[in-house]
Write a structure and sequence with these properties.
Elements: E1 2-6, H1 10-22, E2 26-30, H2 41-44, E3 54-57, E4 66-69, H3 71-82, H4 92-118, H5 125-145, H6 159-168, H7 171-174, H8 186-196, H9 199-206, H10 219-225
Parallel strand pairs: 1-2
Antiparallel strand pairs: 1-3, 3-4
Helix pairs in contact: 1-3, 1-6, 1-9, 4-5, 4-6, 6-8
Length: about 230
């Protein structure tokens, strides 16, 4: 059994999709980041970085209970556990390269673009422009790569597609503006529509909907979500 520590944000969404695609049995454990539950000692024992997602595999290697944190690590771990969504052995170098690109580039820059466009105070135009332009640059790299391709790696749907789907799903917030956020990226738009039509996506989107997460972004939420912006208590 997989205990899946979840909050309805892009990186946990990737793991929800992988679990639904593979059919692994799992239990959702909601972690409300706006209430600061990611900072509780019980969760920090699973992910010392205090971020979502994380999993605990009660039937890990050697039959031992194993923790795994960071979405890319979880994608690799669960794909290897099931032997699914890894492409062919020949695809491995490309798969690792694109997972790194998505996990260290497109994802983080998209996240910072969202933060500075939607949450940061006014007067930070340099940072806002920097992260928005870098997000756009990463989108263009993926756009160019997908020309004439249906999937990111090899000839079949893999965890690279799942990893990209999680953030491209939030394009309207990353590429803040009017109209279709993917209009400038027709290859990504075509690829995303194909991925989004998979039956497992609808099931993944339903994960956690039976839990009422805090939606109001008040001062308490900001302190929990962006603790580095606040001095430690005296």
């Amino acid at each position: 059994m997989i205990r899946f520590y979840f909050h309805p944000t892009p990186n946990p969404a990737k793991i929800a999709l992988l679990l639904e695609e593979t059919g692994l049995p799992y239990e959702v454990v909601p972690v409300d980041t706006s209430k600061g539950e990611q900072h509780l000692p019980a969760f920090r024992a699973i992910n010392p970085n205090g971020k979502l997602p994380a999993i605990v595999d009660t039937e890990g290697p050697g039959g031992r209970e194993s923790r795994v944190f960071d979405s890319t690590a979880i994608l690799l771990y669960l794909a290897e556990k099931t032997g699914k969504l890894l492409g062919t052995p020949e695809d491995r170098p490309e798969l690792l390269s694109w997972l790194a690109f998505l996990g260290t580039g497109l994802g983080p820059f998209s996240g910072q673009a969202v933060h500075f466009q939607w949450a940061a105070p006014e007067g930070l135009d340099y940072a806002r422009n920097r992260y928005r332009r870098e997000a756009e640059r990463h989108y263009q790299v993926l756009e160019d790569h997908l020309a004439g391709r249906d999937v990111i790696v090899g000839d079949s749907f893999t965890i690279a597609d799942i990893s990209a789907w999680g953030w491209i799903d939030r394009a309207s917030r990353v590429l803040k503006g009017d109209g279709d956020p993917l209009a400038a990226y027709p290859n990504i738009k075509r690829w995303f529509a194909a991925i989004d039509s998979r039956p497992a996506v609808a099931r993944a989107r339903a994960v956690g909907q039976d839990h009422e997460f805090k939606k109001v972004q008040d001062e308490e939420s900001r302190r929990h979500l962006f603790p580095s912006n606040y001095p430690p208590a005296a």
